Amino acid sequence: MRRTAVFVILVTSTTVLGCASHKAGGPGTPAVAAVDSSNANQLTDAEKAAGWQLLFDGVSTKGWRGYKKPTFPERGWHAVDGTLKHDKNEPGYKPGDIITEEQFDNFELVLEFKLTPRGNSGIKYLVDEALVPTSNSAHAFEFQILDDDLHPDATKGKDGNRKCGGLYDLIAPPADKSVRPIGEWNQARLLVDGPNTEHWLNGKKTVSYVRSSAEMKSLIGASKFKEIAGFGEGNKGHILLQDHNDEIAFRNIKIRRLPAKLSAN
Fold first, then answer.
1. DSSP 3-state assignment of 109?
2. How far apart are CA 253 and CA 58, in angstroms?
3. Interacting residues of 199 by C-beta distance below 8 A, sequence separation 6+
4. Tell me, what's the pLDDT at 263?
5. Bridge partner list, 7
6. pLDDT digit of tens for each residue in the chain (265 aa)?
7. Angle at the Cα of 264 (from 196 to 52), degrees rounded to 5?
8. Is residue 65 exposed (0-12), middle (13-18) or buried (19+ Cβ within 10 Å)?
9. Which of 26, 127, 227, 248 could form a disulfide with 237 if both were Cys (CB 3.0 to 4.6 A apart)?
10. Rounded distance, CA 141 to CA 225, Å?
11. Is this structure's pTM higher than 0.70?
12. Which stretches of the chain are DSSP H helices?
């Protein structure tokens, strides 16, 4: 897996960090600049004017809670050194995924992540806690974060659809995606504009699909989600950061709501 580069999105673009390999190297998307750690978890005046809001203030877990839980995990997840970090799980203990207290429908999300070797995580969106009442794991669309080089999941699924930057188990990212090495910051962008949905990694689009399309229904029917009634049909839900046992850090988590759109482009 290549290690991904970190980029900062000024207004509308999101860069993903952490899906990179171990090698070097939409509409309204702004210019992408190198990440400035000194300004992490802050909004510029231009971003504030454009409607962006921080989902992580850099010092607390305010605005987040455990999936299907009323509070934030007591350990395993914490705010440290300007990051929202998940530690490698202790034997016999799993803190679980965390979700935003707020729900979102039409939005643009940008964040940065830093993954460790052989790591696995993800950003799930439009999460509905009631979709599978008996499960402690969320079943939702997922921006995959993975060490493509060392984690075995990269070779599973179909045609690379479990690799970093892709739509997990549904759509593979392009082979020439822009990623930075594991251990470096990367930036992810998620665009949910009505049914039109996009993944961006370090300023480059990796996935584009229409959630309500016949094509997507066909993909779901051939995936691990085929037996989950209602999968992919919700238009509003939580943002989720995944506990997949491995260490990962997130920062510069920001979102802006978009005007409602009634039909696909």
1. strand
2. 9
3. 16, 143, 165, 166, 167, 173, 188, 189, 190, 205, 206, 207, 208
4. 46
5. 34
6. 444 443 333 333 333 334 544 443 344 444 343 455 668 999 999 999 999 999 999 999 999 999 999 999 999 999 999 999 999 999 999 999 999 999 999 999 999 999 999 999 999 999 999 999 999 999 999 999 999 999 999 999 999 999 999 999 999 999 999 999 999 999 999 999 999 999 999 999 999 999 999 999 999 999 999 999 999 999 999 999 999 999 999 999 999 999 987 544 4
7. 45
8. middle
9. 127
10. 10
11. yes
12. 45-49, 214-221
C-alpha 255, offset from chain centre:
12
How many whole angstroms separate alpha carbon 173 and alpha carbon 67?
27
Beta-carbon count within 10 A of 48 CB: 11
What's the CA gap between 64 and 72, in Å, rounded?
A: 6
Which one-letter amino acid corresponds to residue 178?
S
What are the tokens at 150? 């060392």
Given a contact cutoff of 8 angstroms between Cβ atoms, the answer to whether 237 and 127 are in contact is yes
Distances (CA, A) of 129 to 121, 140, 219, 239: 19, 10, 22, 11
Provide, for the chain, the percentages of residues in helix, strand and coil under a 3-state DSSP scheme, each rounded to the nearest 5: 10, 35, 60
**Structure tokens, 94:** 């799993």
